[in-house]
Amino acid sequence: MHLLHLAAVLPAALACAAAAVADLSGHRYPREEADRLGVPRRWIPLLGALLGAGSLGLLLGLAVPAVGTAASAGLVLYFLGALAAHLRVGDLRLGPWALFFTASVAAFAAYLP
Fold it and tell me: Which residues cross the membrane (predicted)?
């Protein structure tokens, strides 16, 4: 396991885990974002579960690289969907999105052969 691999995967896993906890714990920030982006609040637990599964998949990928590849690809797609939600309502406040997306892309690149 190369240090650069860990440096790409661990921050992405931590960030996605933190976002999953916020979504699943009923924190106000995900609710406010969902309202601002026109995303139904009932989707928040599902989105949190997807983020949590992605985070766990990244970590499991340290032992089973194919799982990490699939998880990181899923997270990249997840955040492309988030970008679409932002753009659909004309929201260009993309700083947090860019951090999550970049971390996901870096994790995906780390899992490529």
Answer: 43-63, 70-88, 94-112
Full-model pTM:
0.94
Please provide the DSSP assignment of 19-86 as one string. HHHHHHHT-HHHHHHHHHHT--GGGHHHHHHHHHHHHHHHHHTTTSHHHHHHHHHHHHHHHHHHHHHH
For 15, the 3-state DSSP assignment is helix
Rounded average pLDDT per 10-residue block, the chain, 113 residues = 90 98 96 96 98 98 97 98 97 96 98 89
What are the residues whose beta carbons fall under 8 Å from the beta carbon of 19, sequence distance 6 or more? 30, 48, 51, 100
Distance CA 80, CA 39 (A): 15
- Give the contacts of 50 (CB within 8 A, at least 6 positions apart): 74, 78
- CB distance 71 to 58 below 8 Å: yes
**Measured distance CA(4)–CA(64) in Å, rounded:** 17
Phi, psi of 60 (to 5 degrees): -65, -30
